[in-house]
Recover the amino acids of this structure.
């Protein structure tokens, strides 16, 4: 009789551990949780520049870094940063701004002109206000920014940071050396790299907004005949600032032809006042496909807060978005626009003669101006 054989059940194959399993276990590892930001989802809310013309070509959002540079003083970059900060605080819940006065310049006239509340005491730093931090030590500034935006996120707050400017920062070690220490040509680019290594992810995921101003810097060349290296902006900070920033705005010099006068046909004088000017910004980097273009927008003198001259902008955009047809010097409003305005009980003229009359019409009739602003905003936000 043949021996009996024990029949064993078939071996169960254990499922193999996949790469997804490995990644999941690491993502859940509490010792690594502070290094990974995947669970922090930013809202990326749109933040207006204050200019309809600029908003039609750029889409600044919370969680971004914006670089503001200029080739000359008084070009408008600091005022522009405060407009962005104000609009950020209007858009984001429980929001505040920190202004880092690294270069020691924030005049009383500037404070009055921008129309925001500035405080020097942390106890007075309420929502919608600007805390002025007078410090230019790199390590201290970086630590304050990082700790504040992380803490703000934990309690549902939002922070806008204006760093004015990157060029004013100095390492604590270099500060202690005094004037006898060796100056490094690559000092600012080095600080830029270090700053973004610490702040890039927290700014992005915590829905903060970092605005960095800077100076014009000529490129150092050993060989004067060597070809120029393409750069996104002629500013200090090296290539890192261009790569890390979502937008780089380069404010251009202002000339006599940029002035908006009472009488455009005559030169400015005591009897022909300068009412405003056209600010010119070159987009050296953008988060969309408008890098390289130059944008002009009108600014009205003597205005507290955002000084963008909306009537001029709206007149320009009405033509750009073909809300009027032109025949000779006459601008005729589109029939569907006139009918839509009537439904809102707003009487829009059938036509006006010339760009000057179109501007004056919008300047004088607030209801018509606000109607066209809403129409333009609906097109921009599509």
């Amino acid at each position: 009789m043949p021996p009996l054989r024990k029949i064993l059940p078939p071996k169960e194959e254990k499922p193999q551990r996949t790469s997804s399993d490995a990644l999941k276990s690491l993502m859940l590892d509490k010792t690594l949780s502070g290094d990974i930001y995947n669970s922090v989802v930013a809202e990326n809310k749109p933040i207006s520049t204050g200019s309809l013309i600029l908003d039609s070509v750029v889409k600044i959002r919370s969680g971004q870094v914006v670089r503001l540079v200029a080739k000359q003083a008084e070009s408008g970059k600091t005022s522009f940063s405060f407009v962005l900060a104000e609009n950020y605080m209007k858009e984001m819940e429980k929001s505040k701004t920190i202004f880092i006065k690294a270069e020691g310049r924030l005049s009383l006239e500037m404070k009055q002109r921008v129309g925001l509340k500035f405080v020097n005491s942390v106890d007075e730093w309420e929502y919608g206000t600007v805390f002025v931090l007078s410090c230019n030590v790199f390590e201290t500034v970086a630590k304050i920014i990082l700790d504040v935006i992380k803490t703000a996120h934990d309690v549902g707050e939002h922070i806008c940071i204006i760093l004015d400017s990157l060029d004013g920062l100095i390492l604590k070690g270099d500060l202690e050396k005094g004037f006898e220490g060796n100056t490094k040509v690559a000092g600012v680019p080095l600080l830029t790299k270090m700053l973004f290594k610490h702040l890039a992810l927290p700014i992005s995921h915590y829905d903060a907004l970092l605005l960095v101003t800077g100076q014009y810097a000529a490129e150092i060349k050993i060989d004067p005949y060597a070809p120029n290296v393409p750069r996104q902006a002629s500013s200090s900070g090296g290539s890192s600032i261009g790569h890390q920033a979502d937008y780089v705005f380069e404010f251009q010099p202002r000339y006599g032809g940029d002035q908006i006068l009472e009488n455009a046909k005559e030169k400015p004088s005591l009897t022909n006042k300068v009412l405003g000017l056209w600010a010119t910004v070159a987009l050296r980097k953008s988060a969309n496909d408008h890098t390289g273009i130059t944008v002009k927008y009108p600014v009205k003198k003597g205005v507290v807060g955002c000084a963008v001259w909306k009537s001029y902008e709206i007149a320009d955009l009405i033509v750009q978005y073909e809300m009027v047809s032109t025949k000779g010097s006459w601008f005729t409003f589109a029939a569907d626009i006139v009918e839509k305005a009537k439904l809102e009980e707003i009487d829009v003229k059938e036509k006006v003669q010339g760009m000057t009359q179109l501007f004056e019409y919008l300047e004088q009739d607030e209801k018509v101006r606000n109607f066209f602003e809403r129409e333009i905003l609906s097109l921009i936000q599509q």
